[in-house]
Specification:
heterodimer, A: mainly beta, 0% helix, globular, B: mainly beta, seven-stranded mixed beta sheet, four-stranded antiparallel beta sheet, 51% strand
Chain lengths: 113, 113
């Protein structure tokens, strides 16, 4: 059972454009929603994270938008750069049996120069 | 600051052989994790450990064994490798076990023939 569904699987964006990756979750026990960034040949690294007490969190060009009622959250990359080309994973964790991170299937982002 | 290291980085083995993947962290983090990464599935948790001598199953534990005799080491053993275990394996560590900020190693790419 995939508890965190991520789309699209791949995304191609022109330099300077906006990249948007979406995730939806099912488990209402989730209360922490991070995004990880992974470059080829490397392990994933935490990019940005949000808790459901806020609807948006921004760090530089990266923004998480969170919709608790729809059980959806998304990553927006403004002014996308070729250096942003990587695989992005959304994830979720919560309490009890949901304590460990559950990852989405990943989105391979390519930013064209 | 070595962080978290994995060895070997690449491994080719044959069906039925025992394989051990090593993970070492220098931060003295309490929690350590093993994930496998497969296209279309993202990262799936195999096993995790809250402290030395404390381990627990994740989402896909079958065919794997872990141990943690020292805080800094968390080896993963495939007792009798199968082709379905061909994957990229990531070790991670964190200060707490509630999903927040996991630090990933560089991964081990395993091919089972």
């Amino acid at each position: 059972q995939q508890q965190v569904k991520q789309s699209p699987q791949s995304l191609i964006v022109q330099k300077g454009g906006i990249s948007i990756i979406n995730c939806a979750y099912e488990n209402t026990a989730f209360d922490y929603f991070p995004w990880y960034q992974q470059f080829p040949g490397k392990g994933p690294a935490l990019l940005i994270a949000i808790r459901p007490d806020v609807s948006e969190k921004k760090e530089g060009r990266f923004t998480i938008s969170f919709n608790k009622s729809a059980k959806q959250f998304s990553l927006h990359i403004m002014d996308s750069q070729p250096g942003d080309s990587a695989t992005y994973f959304c994830a979720a964790s919560g309490t009890g049996s949901a304590r460990q991170l559950t990852f989405g299937s990943g989105t391979q982002l390519t930013v064209l120069p | 600051d070595a962080g978290i290291t994995q060895s070997p980085r690449y491994k080719i083995t044959e069906t039925g052989r025992q394989v051990t993947l090593m993970c070492h962290q220098t931060w003295s983090h309490s929690y350590m994790f093993w994930y496998r990464q497969d296209l279309g599935h993202g990262l799936r948790l195999i096993y995790y450990s809250a402290a030395a001598d404390i381990t627990d199953k994740g989402e896909v534990p079958d065919g794997y064994v872990v141990s943690r005799s020292k805080t800094e080491n968390f080896p993963l053993t495939l007792e009798s490798a199968t082709r379905s275990q061909t994957s990229v394996y990531f070790c991670a560590s964190s200060v707490t076990g509630d999903g927040e900020t996991q630090y990933f190693g560089p991964g081990t790419r395993l091919l089972v023939l």
